[in-house]
Amino acid sequence: MKLSLSSSDGKTLILKIAEPSEVLGLSATVSGKPYELTAETIDPCQVNFVKREDFLRFLREHSDVCFRVAEQLSDKYSAACHEIRSLALAHSAAEKLAKLLLEWSSKEGESAKQEPRVKLALTHEEIAEMIGTSRETVTRLFAELRKRQIVHLKGSTLLIRNKAALELLANPK
Length: 173
Fold this sequence. Notes:
Shape: elongated
Strand order of the largest sheet: 2-1-3
Number of strands: 6
Largest sheet: 3 strands, antiparallel
Number of helices: 7
Order of helices and strands: EEHEHHHEHHEEH
Radius of gyration: 18 Å
Helix content: 40-55%
Mean pLDDT: 84
Number of domains: 2
């Protein structure tokens, strides 16, 4: 499920891909403020909804769950800071794309493999939005990565053929 943010002028920015079993809107539920992101499924999935009043009642009745909620909110905050630091302080679009591909491979449990595989569920335009560049730049970067045999793309599956080279792009000295 992709999560995006829309501006008042109708522009949409894709922020991230939600993970299976991820709780969406937790901070909005706790704070009582509107949830500002839009969720759109990219694969068949099951979504459950819990009313705010029911959830808050559950928290009042099960104080131990409050600590888990606090942990999740803290984890989300830390992840947001990491992502902002990773993307905002990157020196190039290539560095940003390499970091994103490595992050996706780690979330799919592929990072320990010699040649991790990543399912690309987003278009080049959507990936460009996530890393703050143009679709043309993302298309050019993928072409360069293929030419240098760092990645191989077959359908929507991206095979990272040279993980060390991708890591070097993601973390230049």
